Amino acid sequence: MEQFFVSLDKLARESHLTVAYTPKDLDQFKVYTAEVYRPGIMLAGYYQYFDRTRIQIIGLTELSYLNELDPEIRRTHLEKLFSFQPPAVILTRGFEPLPEMMEFAQKYGVPLLQSAEMTSPLMSSLIQALSTELATRITSGAVYDAAFVEEMVAQQDRAYFLRRGEQMHFYVACEDDGTVIGCAAFGPYHKNPAEGCFYSVFVLPEKQKRGVGRALIETIERDPLFLRAPRVVIPASINALHFYQELGYAFAPGGDRLDEEQLYCLEKFPQRSV
User: Fold this and answer.
1) Is it the case that residue 14 has pLDDT exceeding 90?
2) Which of 1, 53, 108, 265 is 20 to 30 A distant from 222 in Cα terms?
3) For domain 6-122, is the CATH number 3.40.1390.20?
4) Higher pLDDT, 270 or 49
């Protein structure tokens, strides 16, 4: 099975990260998981179950702890962290890297990045960006060729969603800790603004078949914007077709044929079911 990834360069540009050190261009580094990690417990010396595929985030708590350590112990723990060669280590709040961080980033070839954001907002932003891109690739990759998927993903950067957010109602599904696991939006249909349309409906692959997608759709179906629409359209991917049909959406006229974006067109008439 093809392993999907997000370029570290794309992530850095969209999240406004600056480079303190990188051994090569960021577009040569690949991020394979939507999870990011604060390595506090590892910096305390516990390395079991450490996931080297995750971006590591160092904020105020971690930096304060490191500054309190004996210099030799600090060196030992930081070298261990960088020796795992994670995709990147990011310092938040505009903090400058410790000298040992620069030393071990260079020794092990790990990108060392900085962000002006607070730790929690940055983590949420990174997780959402990674989740959206990886979900698009993973859920589409089985039925669409790689070139089509990459072209589709390239259009869906942060600016894309901000523009969409000005025109429609956005919903997200979150875990108890705030991790975004799904999203959906509803707004005017571009072919007829008097009608409504679903956009950007995604659920992380590992969270699918747990009712998350159904909860998002049913929540939007209670939105006044949805209820006022004489007709609602859903552009459905090949993977999602049967899911939407189970929720009562049927093919629009001519919608049973894939369009130029490789989507079916389904419809529902909210006012008929009121």
Assistant:
1) no
2) 265
3) yes
4) 270
